[in-house]
Write a structure and sequence with these properties.
globular; single chain; binds pyridoxal-5'-phosphate; three-stranded antiparallel beta sheet; alpha/beta
Length: 397
């Protein structure tokens, strides 16, 4: 219940421009239904259902016992920054030094800090739509102009480079890419990325490349970063992190890789906002990045198996058709043939069928006609969800 007050909240104007991430709202609504005794299958939230690997947990517990409970440097522990610089150099085929790495509490702060440090009022930012909602929210928050580039199903949710070219102008300051992509599972192919760099040419446009799902590519696919294209390193900020790769969403740790002068500004933003990422978390991060990687492969293989079952099941449901995503752990079926709009359908599935999914419109206007399901749940629950969805359509369509 809201507390009665005689004072009107003197909220800053900019707060009206800040958006949100619907996944957390749907999760709360689903939990409220569960408290009323309803059975809900959770396919709304984007986090691995696996435990953090045991070697990483142990490293974190040891770090707590060994006194890693104090402030550390704002940009991250030097050993972790070096481990990440080595990892990014190896996986992206570029030479990265530790001064180019900033460790932050999760992947999200890199979105926040990139936009805060680069975008002035009126600057244009091109971003994927449907796409992770925080991009648009942050662009609006700082007074930038959000310019969506539509990701189309018929292109397997990869972007149309000619369309991108038509959106670039003298006010374009930043382009946001995300591959593998949330919510569509789309992947930008190497030749698409090379074409994007040709479209950017020699313009002084920065690219925020959100690569948080870079280790979650299916069918033997290999990740390719725009940072790897000759001439792009100093204009690229790579966002990556531990949340999805090592099932560490609650540890809050991610990082950005960028030119050292920008890294210094982001470090200043860290000093002003968080001081530093938790020290024991970072020690666990060193183990995650340098230790045994078999759990990463295991999780990816398991997500692929679930994707196959879930996509096949969706394609048998009336009004539903679904492409096979090539990365991340989401599926994004087209539901236009049901005759329902996305949001009412997601609401009905939650309330009447006990399946929590997200409306495609939670990811922007071009998400209309789609739902997002996370396959970060057991095969048994995924099959149950398919059955509930199927029964619901038989009753209601
Ligand atoms: C595309 C994308 N970028 C960034 C993030 C943020 O990740 P983190 O939880 O590490 O802040 C997410 C999380 O869902 C995401 O899907």
């Amino acid at each position: 219940m809201e507390k009665a007050t005689q004072y009107k909240l003197p909220l800053a104007r900019r707060m009206s421009r800040l958006g949100t991430e619907t996944a957390f709202e749907v999760l709360n609504k689903a939990r409220a239904l569960e408290r009323q005794g309803k059975s809900i299958i959770h396919l709304e939230i984007g986090e691995p259902d696996f435990e953090t690997p045991a070697n990483v947990v142990e490293a974190g517990v040891d770090a707590l016992h060994n006194g890693w409970t104090h402030y550390g440097p704002s940009a991250g522990l030097p050993e972790l920054r070096q481990a990440l610089a080595d990892y990014v150099s190896r996986t992206r085929g570029v030479k990265v030094s530790s001064e180019e790495v900033v460790v932050v509490p999760g992947g999200k702060p890199i979105i926040f800090f990139t936009i805060l440090s680069l975008i002035d009022e009126g600057d244009e930012v091109i971003y994927p739509n449907p796409g992770f909602p925080i991009y648009e929210s942050m662009i609006h928050y700082v007074g930038g102009r959000a310019v969506p580039i539509q990701l189309r199903e018929e292109r397997d949710f990869s972007l149309d480079v000619n369309e991108l070219a038509s959106l670039i102008n003298d006010r374009t300051k930043l382009i946001i890419l995300n591959s593998p992509q949330n919510p569509t599972g789309g992947v930008l192919a190497r030749h698409d990325i090379e074409q994007i760099t040709r479209v950017i040419g020699h313009r002084n446009i920065m690219v925020l490349s959100d690569e948080i799902y870079s280790r979650l590519l299916f069918d033997g696919g290999r990740h390719f970063s725009i940072m790897s294209v000759p001439g792009m390193q100093e204009r690229t900020i790579v966002l990556d992190g531990f949340s999805k790769t090592y099932a560490m969403t609650g540890w809050r740790m991610g990082y950005g890789v960028m030119r050292p002068d920008l890294a210094a500004h982001m470090t200043r933003l860290m000093t002003n906002s968080n001081s530093c990422t938790a020290s024991f978390t970072q020690v666990a991060g060193i183990e995650a990045i340098r230790g045994d990687q078999s759990s990463v492969d295991h999780m990816r293989d398991e997500f692929q198996r679930r994707r196959d079952v879930f996509v096949a099941g969706l394609n048998k449901i009336k009004g539903c058709s679904c492409r096979t995503p090539r990365g991340a752990f989401y599926v994004f079926p087209n539901i236009k043939e049901t005759g329902w709009k996305s949001k009412p359908l997601a609401d009905a599935l939650l309330e009447q069928a006990g399946v929590a999914a997200l409306s495609g419109t939670s990811f922007g206007e071009f998400g209309e006609g789609y739902l997002r399901f996370s396959v970060a749940n057991s095969l048994e629950n995924l099959e149950k969800a398919l059955d509930r969805f199927d029964q619901w359509t038989k009753k209601n369509l």
